[in-house]
Amino acid sequence: MLLTVDVGNTNTVLGLFDGERLFESYRIKTDPRVTADELALMFRGLLSDHPSPDGVSVCSTVPAVLDQLTRMFQRYFADVPTIVVGPGVRTGVPILTDNPREVGPDRIVNTLAAHTLYGGPAVVVDFGTSTNFDVVSAKGEFLGGALAPGIEISVDALAARAARLFKVELVQPRSVIGKNTGESLQSGLLYGFAGQVDGLVRRIVDELGEPAVVLATGGLSHLMFRVCETLDHHEPDLTLIGLRLVFERNC
Questions:
Q1: Nearest CA to 47 among 34, 56, 36?
Q2: What is the pTM of this model?
Q3: Contact 172, 224 (CB under 8 A)
Q4: Structural domains in the chain?
Q5: Is 106 a catalytic residue?
Q6: Does the N terminus or the C terminus of the chain have fewer Cβ atoms within 10 A?
Q7: Which of 6, 54, 67, 106 is catalytic?
Q8: Up-side HSE of residue 13: CA atoms within 13 Å toward CB?
């Protein structure tokens, strides 16, 4: 059994693979102050109903959590081969940017998974704390992309800075023309972000100069996939699949 761990700024996702099959996943809150022992307690609780993993593949955008996660695996899973995506790890993804070390490991992992599943060119739209647009060439190269504030960040900022506005549940409203403040906020957030996504994707594809497959992934991808016009496929577990592929390339 392979354990994959995707540490994001808001949530950490664990995936369990039997060969190529993802048979279980868990989502927990990312806490930058968490200790290695606290992580071990959570992991052991979640994995208690499953066999011990015989391999671990990790990527993280939160350095403090990655440090404690590495300590945890060294202490509690010392005999398990562990791959942490970063410099020196074979991904098979050429990074064609000005400074490859700036690129988050999750974006490289997503590039690998997208090209393996669908070929290229491709655009991965990852709906997380930020909304990432990752552009993949026909050869599987990471060409760059775009970064925008995530939906939940915008909700929090709007509620904090506008005295008469409030946080709303992120669900699709009855219509684009809201009939009350809550529906108006939902409409502006969902359809506004959909317009942003569709506009950026169309500009990216125009710049590529050839058709591209567009994938949606991330925590809110299930919601945005229904309201965006340019998204072709919904792959909520794309990063976990990429982590499995990285592990296979290195072990």
A1: 56
A2: 0.92
A3: no
A4: 2-84 (3.30.420.40), 100-108+118-236 (3.30.420.40)
A5: yes
A6: C
A7: 106
A8: 22
